[in-house]
Amino acid sequence: MERLEVRELVYFTAVAEELHFGRAAARLGMTQPPLSRAIQQLERRLGVALLERGSRRVALTEAGAVLLRESRAVLDAASAAARRTRRAGRADPRLVLVIKPGGDGGLLPAILDAYQAEPGALPVELVCSFGEREILLREGRADAALLHRPRHDLTGLDTQDLMTETQLLVMPSSHRLAGRTRVCLDDLAGEPLPRWPGASEGGSHGPEVHDLGQLLHLIALGRMVAVLPSSIRDQLRADLVAVPVDDAEPTTLVLAWPEHATSPALAAFVRAAAAVAGKATGHGG
Amino acid sequence: MERLEVRELVYFTAVAEELHFGRAAARLGMTQPPLSRAIQQLERRLGVALLERGSRRVALTEAGAVLLRESRAVLDAASAAARRTRRAGRADPRLVLVIKPGGDGGLLPAILDAYQAEPGALPVELVCSFGEREILLREGRADAALLHRPRHDLTGLDTQDLMTETQLLVMPSSHRLAGRTRVCLDDLAGEPLPRWPGASEGGSHGPEVHDLGQLLHLIALGRMVAVLPSSIRDQLRADLVAVPVDDAEPTTLVLAWPEHATSPALAAFVRAAAAVAGKATGHGG
DNA sequence: GCCTTTCCATACCCGCACGGTATCGTCGCG
DNA sequence: CGCGACGATACCGTGCGGGTATGGAAAGGC
């Protein structure tokens, strides 16, 4: 069984994405002929046609589509491997935790305290980031992240549930729904909801939002409303109102980390977080 | 950022596993000097020490241990990519489903029928295999598998629950517990339980077992007992008895497939299986 | 219908890096 | 102190990855 090389996968990915040998070669910083040969050789070694070459157009075969997807997985794994190794070799070991400002459900201080009490705890570096936080984990840029299920895609990650919250509709006090004690999702038809960077799917049609202060400001200005976990209640400005959304799926705050991670520092952090979460749900409900 | 090549990862994995450059080189079918240089170059490019060389012993550094784990992931992904691509390019497209004989909970015929009724259904190739069935999925040798949660490790796989079953203790009619109407796990202390190939963890201390007929035979001979999902009741020999185990965690039969799979044939199969399972729990409970 | 344009494939050449052989340096042990 | 084991270094050849030049086929314009 012939080996499959990373370089070949990079080449193939470029061609498969461009569907054009010339452009792909330019993107790779090389010329077209060696690229053509590399792809041919790849096809020969796999014994499979990956591309249909019309003289004017290039298209993926079924097998080519499969290899494109698989290649991305391999390349992601490879660059994550490099990054994680480099980070593990750094002289100043740290635990990188990525959070969304305001998205910690108020548990973070207690978790950090509990972690620092663990033996062998490392300094924790907090990275604040909005959209696409799970990507930082998959890329090997961070050790752990606070995410929300089901909002985030958790495939390929291991997780520890921390706390489940109902969701609130946050709006200016002048809003037509501000007097209600509860609303349901149908009431929100036509309301401008925030668009989170990276989540370009349907439904959200308001302006794009990058930070919690900005979001609350825009809500206060009447430009939009938002459905948020109930723990943000503590952080609301005086000019905003929040009422429960009855039929919004509850959101679970989870601690997530890359599958198969073995670092004892991470294990200690997960232990600490689980302990804090257990205590919190223990009293609080 | 320098590229990380598959060849280098193969080399490093060999050295990291052997902890000996000479043996690693032999295993790779090459001589020692180029191997040493390749590892040095890898360390230089990553800017990290991977191995501690004593003159008499080689040991992994912290970063080396990380890279070993990551390398295995990358290499697994790469060979899975090759296999999946080759299979996608085959002239006779088939859907490969791996099952454990007797482990289908009786749902399989209905699922296969429902799938064949789907538009564009492919011929289904059944592969029977005992231990380590999930590995066939991860290696790209199969499209889907019937597995049991929590018995199998499902990380890295997408799943569809099919049916949840309580578990039964299966034993010869002469067994000391054969007269009981129910037992609990503590009653089984000291009983020889089957060892499944690949699951070498504690608790199971009986002979290794590779197939259901063999297992039932050994039980009938009084050599062991087993805790099995209740759907095997239909397949029991007359000389065996089965009673519920009260505190054994219920087992869920799941259909599993590699994450991010996009094949329409697989999607249709999942749909068919979900429909059958929904109907089954609909009447049966 | 022919010429042009636009691609990918082929032919040929070169340099480098990968792998081999020979040897050294170093540590541990008798 | 000398020998053996093992990784590192030195040096060399060759195969392969990449470059330039050119061929060849198909689509489009006049």
From TrEMBL, chains A, B:
Name of this protein: LysR family transcriptional regulator
Swiss-Prot/TrEMBL keywords: DNA-binding, Transcription, Transcription regulation
Residues in the signal sequence: none
Lineage start: Bacteria, Bacillati, Actinomycetota, Actinomycetes, Pseudonocardiales
Gene3D superfamilies: 3.40.190.290, Periplasmic binding protein-like II, Winged helix-like DNA-binding domain superfamily/Winged helix DNA-binding domain
GO molecular function, one term: DNA binding
One protein family per Pfam: HTH_1
Naturally occurring in which organism (per UniProt): Saccharothrix coeruleofusca
The family this protein is said to belong to: Belongs to the LysR transcriptional regulatory family.
Superkingdom of this protein's organism: Bacteria
UniProt key word Cell membrane: no
GO CC annotations, alphabetized: protein-DNA complex
Domain HTH lysR-type: 4-61
